Amino acid sequence: MRPTIKKPLLYRSVNTRTHGVRHGSCFAYRYERHTKGEKNSLATRGSMHSHQRHGFDYTPLFRFLLAKVGQPWDQVFSEANARLDRPEPVFWMVALHECDKKEYVGTDESAYFSGLWVDETGLLQKVNPQLTPEQMKPFCNCCTHTFNGVVFPMVPPRTP
Fold first, then answer.
1. What is the DSSP string of 69-89?
2. Does residue 125 sit within a domain?
3. What is the model's pLDDT at position 114?
4. Residue 21 covered by a domain
5. C-alpha to C-alpha distances, 9 to 54, 74, 80, 154, 156, nearest whole angstrom
């Protein structure tokens, strides 16, 4: 009998306890809690606990999905779902309906991946297969932006 080889997970844990790491807008509460007024009553504040899950990097999932373009969606999803902690990150990149298609998806502050969708025949496809990193433009000059793991070309500053 052959030993079964366990495939690696499609996400990884990242450090969230480092000094200065901030996630979302969870720090806004400390500036509001002692203010006076009806708008800050306990009924309108809501929970102090975030519903976001921090500490996971899904880059291996996005690369896995890009490698599976052209394959049957049901098989791709079942394999991805078995190797994830939850199914939602798959649908950050994959659109099941025509109206949800996007050419590219921002997964981080400066990381972008091709948008994917499931066609009429049930195959996983890129929304725009001709989109390349050279066609992408960075949103700022201070960060290194990537598209499908390839660095964008920096836009040269304009000279007056």
1. TTSBHHHHHHHHHHTSS-STT
2. yes
3. 95
4. no
5. 17, 19, 9, 33, 39
